[in-house]
Design a protein that fits this description.
The complex is a heterodimer. Chain A is an alpha+beta fold. Chain A has helices at 2-29, 36-54, 56-74, 86-183, 193-224, 237-247, 272-288, 334-337, 351-361, 393-399, and strands at residues 233-235, 256-261, 268-270, 295-302, 307-314, 365-370, 377-384. Chain A folds into three domains: 2-127, no CATH class; 154-224, Helix Hairpins, CATH 1.10.287; 233-399, Heat Shock Protein 90. In chain A, 62% of the residues lie in helices and 10% in strands. In chain A, the strands form two sheets. In chain A, strands 2-4-5-7-6 form a five-stranded mixed beta sheet. Chain A has a two-stranded antiparallel ribbon with strand order 1-3. In chain A, helix 3 runs antiparallel to helix 4, helix 6 packs across helix 7 (272-288) and helix 7 (272-288) packs antiparallel against helix 9. Chain B has a five-stranded parallel beta sheet with strand order 2-1-3-4-5, with helices on both faces. In chain B, strands 6-7-8-9 form a four-stranded antiparallel beta sheet, covered by helices on one side. A three-stranded antiparallel beta sheet of chain B has the order 10-12-11. In chain B, helix 2 (37-47) packs parallel to helix 3 (63-73) and helix 3 (63-73) runs parallel beside helix 4 (87-95). The radius of gyration of chain B is 19 Å and the shape is globular. The chains are: A alpha+beta, B alpha/beta. At the A-B interface, helix 4 and helix 5 of A face helix 1 and helix 5 of B.
């Protein structure tokens, strides 16, 4: 370390001496054509150059050397260190003072610049380190969040699988118990025909529910993986609505369903099967979460821009504003997770998530508002009308 | 007057309440169902059941809150239906005063056995008032602090004796760690699970010695212990 500093210093002194010598030789070669002022300024420049390059001590050496050269070669009598004219003494002294001062000032400026540069580098380095640390931390946080999400999803899935399984297991063991009792000749209470039928009905309904849930999971996984293949066609709102209503016939039989379609509503380039699935989910939800004999209104009209706007509205308990986004999250159920009262059991928690997936795959939007007079629920979705070219090439290839 | 024992089932899954209503009714119980804690509490007030079976996750009022409210007004036995993954809530429910739990999915036999045990405890005086009593394989003299297991005398330290008496008074019921620690060591010790582990270990060594050896203290993983005086 010390050796390196010495070596650097030595090189500086050498360079300073050489620079002064070089300038002296050049000036001398002009002979009497250069006057003392030119010489003084040139040597001063050399000192400044040395100062900015090698620092204050080297600049001081250069100043002294320059003063000596100035005196020896350019102030009469030439070739001696004596000076004949007294005003030259003043010039020499002035030269020395200016050279030393300018040298020191420029060396200090250089030092400051160096310090500033070092500071800048340090800040830059700190910034990089900070950014890296932040990236590491946010990566870890993202991982943690994703793990948390995974385990929450797993909890939701296991709950949804286990609930019907519990009813199935309880039904089967009730039936089994009776049969075993009869086989063993024990006197066990005999279930009447109605009870036995009820147990079997529960098993039947719950296996269907499991199957629906698994179907929903698969569909959602497909949408999330971006593997939803839309089969777009020119679809008319009335056909889509009537398909959905036929499917929802059973669940809406106790409701008063009204359909309002704007006259001359244009057809839209959509996947009719998928859109009617969305509509079915909304109608089914409306029927589930509103009292019997109340109204369900299905509307189709022109939306803003080139869109079709469809809505399903009920006179049920409604969804509080703070839950209106969350109900589109998979496995979220307002009746279970959001303290919304309902006499009907909660569904799979997948319907609205799938509906949103389908609407967004069409580049549409889906959202929830309060029904008329602030009561009930209105779910609205918009779909671009589209044109022949509206089919994304990627999806075309995928279906191809 | 109807002498059937009354059971209130509280669950938001109508399918399960249908099954439980049928399964329990066929065994001679009178059953009513409620769809959430709030409705359960209403029915409880109107009907005064002998036993309550409740789910934990429910809308409006969950099973935990129901346990808390019921315990504030009644000593009715409560059986909690819980699922794997709900261990924390289950322990909380037991701490709040639930008597037992059944893990979903369960067979009707398992539930019926828990129902019978809980109702048996109800018909038995909650704490023996006489100075000596018998319970399963155990004979206890409270005055002389003498314990006999299957006829042979067992020497217990004062704390072990207290723990055993507490177990005997709540035999068949699931007792959480916190529950036991609060009862024997006091409220400041409810986190000192290791005390309990040591004392339960000692009790087991002293009690479960006969031929053939019986296990009286059953470990309920992550929850606590259940004492079976008949082994």
């Amino acid at each position: 370390m010390l050796g390196k500093v010495f070596e650097k210093d030595f090189l500086g002194y050498l360079a300073a001496s050489l620079a002064v010598a070089f300038v002296t030789v050049v000036l001398k070669s002009f002979g009497s054509h250069v006057n003392a002022t030119t010489v003084a300024l040139s040597l001063l420049l050399t000192v400044l150059f040395v100062a900015t390059k090698w620092g204050s001590r080297t600049a001081l050496t250069a100043s002294v050397l320059a003063m000596l050269c100035f005196n020896f070669f350019f102030l009469p009598p030439f070739g001696t260190f004596t000076i004949s004219a007294p005003d030259n003494w003043i010039a020499l002294a002035a030269f020395l003072i200016v050279a030393v001062t300018a040298g020191q000032l420029s060396a200090r400026a250089r030092k400051r610049a160096e310090e500033a540069e070092r500071g800048r580098r340090k800040i830059e380095q700190l910034y990089v380190e900070l950014r890296e640390a932040f990236e590491r931390a946010s990566h870890a946080e993202a991982l943690r969040q994703s793990e948390k999400l995974k385990s929450a999803l797993l909890d939701a899935v296991t709950h949804d699988l286990r609930t019907p399984l519990t009813s199935i297991k309880a039904s089967i063991t009730t039936l089994l118990d009776e049969v075993r009792g009869r086989v063993d000749g024990e006197e066990r209470p005999i279930l009447d025909e109605d009870s036995r039928l009820e147990m079997l009905e529960v098993i039947d309904e719950e296996t269907d529910r499991l199957n629906r849930f698994i179907g929903g999971l698969i569909e959602l996984a497909r949408i999330e993986a971006g593997e939803m293949h839309l089969r777009r066609n020119w679809g008319a709102a009335d056909e889509i609505i009537s398909t959905a209503l036929t499917r929802a016939e059973q669940s809406t039989k106790n409701h008063e369903v009204t359909v309002q379609i704007e006259s001359e509503l244009p057809v839209a380039r959509v996947d009719e099967r998928a859109v009617s699935e969305v509509l079915y989910t909304l109608i089914d939800n409306a029927a589930k979460y509103s009292p019997p004999a109340t109204k369900i209104v299905i509307k189709a009209e022109r939306g803003e821009g080139a869109t079709i706007r469809m809505s399903v509205e009920d006179r049920g308990v409604g969804i509080p504003a703070e839950l209106r986004d969350r109900v589109f999250d998979k496995f979220f159920r307002a009746t279970r997770d959001g303290d919304v009262r309902a006499s009907h059991p909660s569904g799979t928690g997948l319907g609205l998530a799938i509906a949103r997936g389908i609407v967004e795959a069409h580049d549409g939007h889906i959202w929830i508002e309060s029904g008329p007079d602030g009561r009930g629920t209105r779910v609205i979705f918009t779909l671009p009308i589209g044109d022949e070219e509206a089919v994304e090439p990627q999806r075309e290839v995928a279906t191809g | 007057m109807n002498d059937k024992q009354r059971i209130l089932v509280v669950d938001d899954e109508p399918q399960l309440t249908r099954v439980l209503r049928t399964g329990l009714s066929s065994r001679g119980y009178e059953v009513r169902v409620a769809g959430d804690g709030l409705a359960g509490l209403d029915t409880f007030g109107d009907w005064q059941p002998h036993l309550v079976i409740t789910d934990l996750a429910m809308p409006n009022m969950d099973g935990l809150e129901l346990c808390r409210r019921l315990r504030a007004i009644s000593q009715v036995p409560i059986i909690v239906l819980s699922a794997k993954g709900e261990e924390k809530t289950k322990v909380e429910a037991l701490d709040l005063g639930a008597d037992d739990f059944v893990t979903k999915p369960f067979g009707i036999d398992e539930l019926l056995a828990r129902v019978r045990a809980a109702l048996r405890r109800l018909t038995k005086p909650a704490s023996p008032t006489q100075s000596s009593f018998h319970e399963g394989d155990f004979g206890v003299d409270l005055e002389s602090r003498l314990v006999k297991v299957r006829g042979s005398e067992v020497h217990l330290t004062p704390k072990e004796f207290d723990l055993l008496i507490y177990f005997l008074k709540h035999s068949g019921k699931v007792l959480t760690h916190r529950n036991l620690l609060a009862a024997i060591w006091g409220g400041n010790y409810v986190e000192q699970y290791q005390y309990l582990r040591v004392f339960v270990g000692n009790l087991r060594k002293k009690l479960e010695t006969g031929e053939p050896p019986k296990s009286y203290i059953v470990t309920e993983p992550w929850v606590g212990y259940r004492f079976l005086p008949g082994g």
